[in-house]
Amino acid sequence: MAEQRKNKLNLDRVAKIWALAERGDAGEQAAARNRAEALVKQHGYTLADVPDLLLTEGYLDDEPQPSAGGFTFYDMSNPAHQRAYAKAEEKKRAAWRMANRAKMDEVLTRYGSEEAVFAPTPEEQAYDAVIKPFRKKGKAGQCDTWDGEHFSPTLRIRAALATVKPWPDTIPDAIAEYDYWEKLYDDRNIADSNSQYNYLGQGADFRRWALGDLINKEIEARDLSDVIIRLRFQEASQGIYNDSAVILRDLERLHAAENSQGPDTASGDTPPDRGYQATSTESQGGPENHAASENQNVGNLHVMGSSDLRNEERPDSASSPPFILNTASKRRAEVERILSTPEGARMSLRQVARMAGVSPATVMKVRSCLQEQH
Fold this sequence. Notes:
The chain is mostly helical. It has helices spanning 2-8, 11-23, 26-41, 49-56, 79-99, 101-111, 114-118, 122-131, 155-162, 171-191, 202-218, 224-236, 244-260, 287-296, 328-339, 342-346, 349-356, 360-372; strands at 135-136, 145-146. It folds into two domains: 2-111, no CATH class; 121-261 and 277-372, no CATH class.
């Protein structure tokens, strides 16, 4: 639909009018903006769309353009190419804004203003305050550290954060808080045209990282529902969280507990070993056990197909779980993970960016901070 609208719109004429709106005198600017608005409105655009529309179509380019292979790391020493690279990145963001205008409007409407989206929350302010004593200012060109770390919270940082709010002791509760921070991060990224910066306060960012570790391996699973949640979280992280050993320990412990509560086998009437098939309906004997299994998941929106979900609340089978790691913060974490491996350290900015779904500029920022640690 958007492509059809652009095909019908005379962009050459819009570009000429917009040049007057940008560079003419006050009277010419106002008249040109009115003409541009009238011209694009009949094609379903607003005046705010004009700069992005022209930028994505190449009308505002006035710097060297990347070759077929794109910009390289070595181009960055050339000021003209630096400007061209910035222009190319802005063009990508403009295209993103054009494609996600409704999503951006929804976020701004929900918060009330762009300032409100980025205003530190009371929780962020409280977490920043309790970790402030651990901050050490970095030297010129270097990142700050907190208790000697850049990204992951130390035990002392964790203890300080717990004075504001105790750490959750169940996997579903940890997921709920983790999702809260991910949603806030994603809302800010959307409002910032998918620029993929770090949008949380440092204390909240440490809190989010620790929550990920709690979900991944630290909190003991109470039942099979918790194990399923943990495994789905790990799989959705695409390698960021991948402690499979804890899944095995969960299953072995729950399996042992189940056997210890079984019938007395001293008479020789030994029931068959159900193994890990105990989680399937077929291995549990019938509708009664199936109902019990369903009840185990009641109220847990992270277990797909929970029996208490109304039809309109049930996640679509083609959709990702609510905690799928598809936000800017998770992509940034994936950059850190890739760069921390020997293979990732040898990759180009563009190779890492392609793997993580971010821009090379984001990779460069993360790499710079990582290098300062060593």
